[in-house]
Amino acid sequence: MNSSVSNQNSQAPSPPEEVHLSDYLNVLIRRRKTFLVTFLAVFIAVLLVTFLTKPVYEATATLHVKDEQAKGGVLGELSLLASNNPVDSEIEIVQSRTNAENVVKRLHLDWQVTKQSDGLGFQLLEFTSTAGKPSYVVELTGVNTYRVRDDDGSVVGSGTSGVPMRGKGISLLVGELRGKAGDSFRLGLLPFNETVDYLRKTKLKVKELGKKTNIIEIGYTNTDPVRARDVVNNLVQAYLEQAIGFKSEEASRTVGFVENQLKGVRNELDTAERPTYRCRRNRSSSPSPP
């Protein structure tokens, strides 16, 4: 009996050993090469992403929406409670397809310029194409002269800076051409409807700034700060022009309604005054008693 008890006591588990900070340091020292390689790889990757990624710029503008339904008194407050938020309607108008199409047309966002040679400068003033795949390479052939090739390498036209060029399925006007012979850039024409949808659904952000402030914030992001600024400014301009058009149309309808009402009142007055006028005329024409 005593021997069995002593065997059980001898098989009891030993307490866990304590882990000290020095043990972790020893592990890092033994694997210092792996640690240094990993650290350098992460550091270099962060540097590459930081310096190679193009910065993204955001341009914003704010609009104040005047609530035309606001009226004084208790009835005005009740009408405001029953009516919808006018900002929601204005937000939909700002980002409407009509305004987006105007911005795309004004800024020619469907024109795509890529693979531009260093030191080459120009101003693209006109570009239309009837080709099924409108993609071209514009190459300088001399001072202020250029040649246009399609994707197959065929020459579709040649032109001079500042002079409209009409080629095979393409119309082009390039101004302020600066560069040397051999410089080139690729020119493409994006589908108009897809460009409009891309602007409305991905790049453009329209929201109310705060809660019940009646202030709309318009934002647009792009790697080109000038393009971001121009898109926001042109969208605001298109919205204001549309709002002025709505006001002018409403004023014209109001003026037309008032003129019609005045014409009807004038006719009624003329009709009512005819018997009186006849009576006066008859009295003036009747002979006086002797």
Question: How are the SSEs placed, and which strands pair?
Answer:
Blueprint: H1 2-10, H2 21-30, H3 32-52, E1 57-64, H4 73-82, H5 86-94, H6 97-107, E2 111-114, E3 121-129, E4 135-142, E5 145-150, E6 155-160, E7 165-167, E8 170-178, E9 184-189, H7 192-203, E10 204-208, E11 215-222, H8 225-285
Antiparallel strand pairs: 1-11, 2-9, 3-8, 4-5, 4-9, 5-6, 7-8, 10-11
Helix pairs in contact: 6-7, 6-8
Based on the model shown, name its key terms.
49% helix; Alpha-Beta Plaits; five-stranded antiparallel β-sheet; disordered N terminus; 8 helices; 3 domains; three-stranded antiparallel β-sheet; 290 residues; alpha+beta
Could you write a compact summary of the structure shown?
This protein is of the alpha+beta class. It has 8 helices and 11 strands.
Folded structure, characterized:
- There is one protein chain.
- By secondary structure, this protein is an alpha+beta fold.
- It folds into three domains: 23-53; 57-106 and 195-247, Alpha-Beta Plaits; 111-189, no CATH class.
- It is built from eight helices and eleven strands.
- The protein has a five-stranded antiparallel beta sheet with strand order 2-9-4-5-6, with no helix packed on it.
- A hairpin with a 2-residue loop joins β4 and β5.
- The chain starts with a helix and ends in a 5-residue tail after the last helix.
